[in-house]
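Hey,
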Amino acid sequence: MASYNVLRGCVIDGATYKAGDSVDIDDAAAMSLVQSGQVVAAAVMSRDVTKSSDAKPKKKATKKAD
């Protein structure tokens, strides 16, 4: 059994789950749910934001005085 996050509301093993819920399900059921896009493995759904040193904010152009 592995941990999965629900992407769309669905019924798994007779229980109703909403989007965002974490569920422990067996591999056989998980395979069909992943293929249909209803769940995703918990490790895949990481939304960590990392700071990149390459991305610098652009400077705003200034108007020239007449």
